[in-house]
Design a protein that fits this description.
The complex is a heterotrimer of chains A (177), B (376) and C (156).
Chain A lengths: L11 E5 L7 E5 L1 H11 L3 E2 L5 H9 L13 E2 L7 E5 L4 H13 L5 E5 L1 H5 L22 E3 L6 H16 L11
Parallel strand pairs in A: 3-4, 3-5, 5-6, 6-7
Antiparallel strand pairs in A: 1-2
Helix pairs in contact in A: 1-5, 2-5
Chain B lengths: L3 H4 L5 E5 L11 E7 L2 E8 L7 H5 L8 H5 L6 H16 L5 H29 L4 H21 L8 E2 L2 E2 L7 H12 L2 H10 L2 H7 L7 H6 L5 H5 L6 H4 L25 H25 L18 E9 L2 E9 L7 E5 L1 H5 L3 H4 L5 H11 L3 H5 L1
Chain C lengths: L2 H12 L3 E5 L3 E2 L2 E4 L4 H10 L7 E10 L2 E9 L6 E8 L5 E3 L8 H12 L2 E3 L27 E2 L2 E2 L1
Parallel strand pairs in C: 3-6, 7-8
Antiparallel strand pairs in C: 1-3, 4-5, 5-6, 9-10
Chain lengths: 177, 376, 156
Amino acid sequence: MSGDKAQAAPALSVLPGSLGPEAHVMIGNADKFVNWCRRSSLWYLLFATACCGIELMQAGASRYDLDRFGAVFRATPRQSDLMIVAGTITHKMAERLVRLYEQMPEPKYVISMGSCANTGGPFFKDSYCVVKGVDLLIPVDVYVPGCPPRPEALIDGILALQKIIDQKKNFGKTAKA
Amino acid sequence: MKSHAEALPTQEMLINMGPQHPSTHGVLRVILRTDGEVVVNARPDVGYLHRALEKIGERVTYAQYMPFTDRLDYLASMNCNAAWAWTVEKLAGIEVPERAEYIRVIVCELNRIASHLIAFGSFTADMGAFTPFLYAIRERERINDLFEEVCGNRLTYNYVRIGGVSADLPEGLLDKTTEFLDYFEPKIPEYNNLISYNKIFVHRLANVAVISPEEAVAYGLTGPNLRGSGVPFDLRKDEPYSVYPKLEFDVCVGTGERGTVGDCFDRYMVRINEMKESVKILRQAIAQIPDGPVQAKVPRVFKPAAGEVYFRAENPRGETGIYLISDGTVNPYRLKIRAPSFVTMNIFEKITKGLMISDIVAVIGSFDIILPEIDR
Amino acid sequence: MEPKAIFDLLKSRFGGDILEIQEEGISPPFAVVSPEKLPEIARFLRDEPGLSFDSLMCLSGVDYKERFAVAYHLHSLKETHRIGVKVYLPKENPSVQSVDAVWPAANFMERETYDLYGIVFEGSIDLRRILLPEDWEGHPLRKDYKYPEFYHGIKV
């Protein structure tokens, strides 16, 4: 099953009654099963430095609910698999950001949210202590532009990340972690 | 016979409440030395969001600096924008039309309500109650809608200009604001019923980190933190600017209703009461607003006369002061921002001696600090 | 009290240490004082009954091209008047006495001025870099500051 149709249904087929009236067997593609599990419960690390942090909080709160995508916030990197870098990263903070990224267990994903995390934002030209883009420090999967991006834009970014996760190959010779 | 405490030698622990922490309202690092659960010394370490706003101010023009004041305190963007505009207008002697001043006061007070809602929501979330945060964000989203109609953005507005505001209010906005105020006013008693007088909440905040009035003044506290200690000083009443002399409201002061005057609970209640006062101010401003132009004539290449000026405005977090030195060119010569949260952190190390670690979270929340202001 | 009256009171008390009054185009007006007498003048401003400047609004460093300055903005809650005090410092090894014994609010602001300008505040209870990393080189807000190329391997 391709990822476009029936986003919610897993790529598995249920054969009732093949091994007896009470047995249910599911046959499917291991890759798609694992990807479905991973993209449906992206727990994100609460890493909000600046203004984009407020939009992140509002995206997770009453009106634009991130919980319906399975994304709940965790305070510790050990329990999260998505880091949404929301806000400006300064040189003083850079080392801690890399340490937090290294503390997250695999598989992990990074969304760079907002202009400051993408390229340094309005501080690109004249500021001496802003890292001009978080991809100078850690690998980024999705960039969400905006200053700050609306919660709908962030949700669009998370859906794009879900599409990326759907394409990953986890088993076999060409698999990467 | 020695007691257990005396017989068992203990060591002080050095714990890092690091830059990434759910309760520190941003990237604040607190270096704790604790004896068990009791804090011996809590030293704040700031600077993780230092973005050189003052240096940038020396390299851009006066009008170009307006979006940067948004990022100074992003929960009170309109207030910071307006403070910058008032400072430059004081320096250059620009006369702002009355309708523009009323519009500025309306958006500033709406932003004050929005900022105090987040302060209320995140403070109660830090104390362990997550639901009031969702209620607060529900109300704040309605304010965001109003602001989106005014200027197009939900968070960093860049709406105020030197000499006025960038565009007039759209048609029907004042009616929608009145609708919002009618909807919001009964919510404040609802919040008090929900969480404010809850036994656990009061127990966690009463008599914690008491700041006496003399200490508060000496350490430079301003805004709700100062008023929570019983000092009735409000810049809108004592050094009025803009159209505040024409508006009537009360100054909310901490009364020690559940503990001592100047504890965390007082500072929290001052913010709740200030939301009520802001609703009053808004109703009066909407009734009094005149028609007219919204932008004064400011030259395209704006070179104010050389001089130095210090202006301060009452922001939701305290007194935001801007010390501006101009040398007659298009760029400011020196731009110093006196941020309320920065000066509030002065007293942090002193009042956290002897508290528990969970009280540190209550103290940070009751001060309502915001990191970009501290670090600029 | 009017600023003029405050300055006259200061002049009558401290005489030659009040170097000049800056009023033209400057709000609030500044009294320029000599750096050596600053702690005494600060204490007088806070404790004298008619003045009682109990609140330090703002402490800022300034880099005028030939010299540095530290500007103090003071306010009195009781008497509701405002004044400014300024000290000029030379470009080499600028240093002045700290006022955090008089107004404890000065501590963080002095640390920030030290961090960004390099002005040393003698007698301060705690003078360390506050906004920039501990191992940053240079003092950025000086007018002749050159931005570094790299910091810890990351391009600035």
